[in-house]
Amino acid sequence: MAKKRILIVGGVAGGATCGARIRRLNEDCEIVIFEMGSYVSFANCGLPYFIGDVIVEEEKLLVATPALFENRFNIRVCTDTQVMSIDRENQSISVCDLKSGEQRVEHYDALVLSTGSQSVWPDIQGLDLPGVHVLRTIPDSRQIKAQLENIHRAVVMGAGYLGLELAENLHKRDVQVTVLQSSDHVMPSLDKEMAAYVTNHLQKNGLNIKLNCKATAIKQNADHSLQVSMDSGESLNVDAVMISIGVKPRTELAIQAGLELGKHGGIRVNEYLQTNDPNIWAVGDVVEVKNVITNEWQLFPLAGPANKQGRLAATDIVRKKIHTIPSIPYRGVQGTTVCGLFGLTVATTGVNEKTLQQFPDIEYEKVYLHPSNHVGYYPGAKPIHIKMLYDARNGKILGAQALGESGVARRIDVLASFIQMGGTVYDLEEAELCYAPQFGATKDPVNLAGMIAANHLRGNHPLAKWEDLADTHTQVTDDQDDVDQMLAFIMDDPYSQAQIVDVRTIAEFERKHIPHAVNIPLDSLRDRLDELSQEREIWVVCGVGQRAYNATRILQQHGFRVRNLSGGMQTYANYEE
Amino acid sequence: MAKKRILIVGGVAGGATCGARIRRLNEDCEIVIFEMGSYVSFANCGLPYFIGDVIVEEEKLLVATPALFENRFNIRVCTDTQVMSIDRENQSISVCDLKSGEQRVEHYDALVLSTGSQSVWPDIQGLDLPGVHVLRTIPDSRQIKAQLENIHRAVVMGAGYLGLELAENLHKRDVQVTVLQSSDHVMPSLDKEMAAYVTNHLQKNGLNIKLNCKATAIKQNADHSLQVSMDSGESLNVDAVMISIGVKPRTELAIQAGLELGKHGGIRVNEYLQTNDPNIWAVGDVVEVKNVITNEWQLFPLAGPANKQGRLAATDIVRKKIHTIPSIPYRGVQGTTVCGLFGLTVATTGVNEKTLQQFPDIEYEKVYLHPSNHVGYYPGAKPIHIKMLYDARNGKILGAQALGESGVARRIDVLASFIQMGGTVYDLEEAELCYAPQFGATKDPVNLAGMIAANHLRGNHPLAKWEDLADTHTQVTDDQDDVDQMLAFIMDDPYSQAQIVDVRTIAEFERKHIPHAVNIPLDSLRDRLDELSQEREIWVVCGVGQRAYNATRILQQHGFRVRNLSGGMQTYANYEE
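^ Those are the sequences you sent over. The predicted structure of the assembly is below.
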């Protein structure tokens, strides 16, 4: 019997993993990887850090070479080779050697499309000018690095992970960086009020951040610098422009072959990463994936999922084409991300509130908290700002966002694990996690998130949201979506139906407080209950929510209708942004 | 109706948490905490770091004061007050004011015993000599600190968490420290081969570690220094001796009251922390707890579980004595621990192999791995040494031990979360965790642990254990328990039934290898298959297990009987210890 031929288009992340895994499962088949670029299996996540000289040697970015694939995995790698078309009927592809220009036809028993994604370019003039860059490949990074000594000012378009990592690394190389973001906050994976921390942090570290701002044109000045015009009417003169407004699946081949695509433009695959052609699989940035929380298709172009998909596609290919082995379906993506920016870690898992608002069937609740990464009595404690979303009906955790200098990825990884396992806020209460003074607290931030949410669900701890406050007054404004405007109204209105009681100390209150809030420090609350009206609901606020929780319990038991403004003044500060 | 009276004996950790939680659930009852010492709610986990001047100010150790309990929680705190006896029939306790000597009787509707634990003292002479200390309270730490300038050499008896933390902190204060441990490895929560890393690390950092060593007597020398005699026949002259060989539940009161105890000497409680007297609850170090993995009673005197228990006992007391609220049972302890020693983090969750060996019904398997905390191409990657134990029948994770400089608590917390949720090694394969170059890898250490174990369970990746190797040769030795001896035998025996194939490079092999191993570098393995015999099973070894995995796959498919020596030369080095 002839050896099975497995061809893989694209040799980074998903494709490379897929090839190696197929070989481990089967020694007999022939495996060939075709890579349009000159490198396979390179560390694309490391490129911004190569620009910033955090990673100094270019060769470190080469995780595996064609020679390693050949010697270790008996996989042939054809770099600088573009796959031009797929002939599904004859199970063959037409490939072109980009160096010689020669074309040839290669037969396959199974084909894997790991063609990845490409940059989205804005629809503006001047993108072809020298000094306008994207950062997707080693040659891209080499080109940027070669010009760095002449780049003193740069615009980065797009404040997603890559854009901000690039901005930080350019800043490290003494470039004055302005980041333009078309939406109202940085990092689209975060909700707006959580992104406010990031913006603050980036500004403190010297980046210029322009939100709600789009470039409208790039022109070359007489001195060869670039003028970036913005929709605000302003313009900036810079030496370089980095385009990082997003990526889209590289689907030319799939379209030519008539493979089914999803509504987001990615290849549609089943739970085994198989396309609608039973001889073709697809993995990585080029496919649409199902979100495990919403069960909706989406794009999620990150390296971790690409690798997992490559591994699972390999297993399915061997199972269906070569010999029987157990199947392993892909469970979908969960939305776990992490990013480090000037010492701040920003991480997410599950879905954010923006996303949940698109699914009216999901009744969610949220908590904000600001615990320390470890007990306060051990030196060096740093706050972690957490927002957690959970299902109001059963307490299932739906998503979390966290930011801080230390211990952030750890807490998000724990929450990611609970989400994967269908865990609830009640499970978080009970979690037995690492505790020693320098590592956490007897009530870990994860425990606390669970306790606050579970107390809320049990009715012991009603939570107020800034939006709730606004919603009770929708009659006074025509723009129901404008939370900021409503808030401003509420806070200026001494006759609003809620009385805000600030239970911090007098000194804390005097430093800053919500307009028209009344100050009754927690420790005197029991003695001053007669100052409060039973007529109006009470929203209690403190620094981060903990003293207000105690106050809520006291007031609730004395017959007041009361809610804790979740996250306290820390969260208020974000809503003010 | 008279107010319910809830009395709490012991005001640290569990007792303090219990009181605060009862108050949050009910404003009406009377709550009194009786504390024998002078402080409530102090940070006992911080005491070693107070000795080491990591925590400089003593007041930082006072997490909450009696005044705070009074003002915030309306809880009366009686410090320096010992509860002498319990009269269960009359629901009262007899208390003694230790300052005035006055005794009084206090009635209770509910009583909480949070009496904690006390040091186990060795059965040797000289314990009453000046210079012999335990570290359990703030006064203990004050006493040690006051004498530090005269302490140049010290013996710490006991290499558990507290003993080693204390040893590190004494070393920080320029004390020359010798640690005596009666068993064959430090940190009883670890298995021996994992503890070998810790011993090495402590020695490298200047501690003198004596294993299998017990003190037999302490005598005072003419110069007032102490002479510690050991069962080895040696003796040490030191200025201080710290006793840290363990703790035992402080059950005098429970015994006097005739409450049921368990076989380990702790108070027996049900899942609501209620004793066999329906008016008495007990929490913290004084109770026995059920292990969630083995379902056996054990002692687990740590602060995290004590706090959780205090919270749950409070809920149950209010539910049963005051008003209906939802019940929350305690799920038991899981064994999560963490300890930092000279920059090394050592963490565990679930059970260790020593424990599993006592449960022949549990068929377990284990994997060793040594991944980096983040991708190697990003600077500063550090290894994490992991041992994971899982159920051979269904892949359920049973326990894990990990050590390293960075990212250790994070991985153990993730594994703890999966254990809590009944997760399997297959779930670990699929976990979507935080990845960016400075935070992890597309295959996180947790994913890798799952993949290695799942591949093993699927039959793709048979693992060998050093003990397996020995077990196949039990006929040659009388002492079946002496793995070291068997190993030595096997390794010296060119005719043993397994051939050891080392697939590292020639240079690596030449630096160090297992006696009688054959070197066939992985990348030439396919060309050199004819050098191997089909007669004898092959055990493949490499640096950490990854290349050997690839070799195992190649050999298995070519018809060889083959196993990967789990953890490679890294783990071999531990077994050599």
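The CA atoms of residues 522 and 564 of chain A lie 13 Å apart. Confidence is low (pLDDT under 50) at residues 472-480 of chain A.

Shout if you want it in another format.
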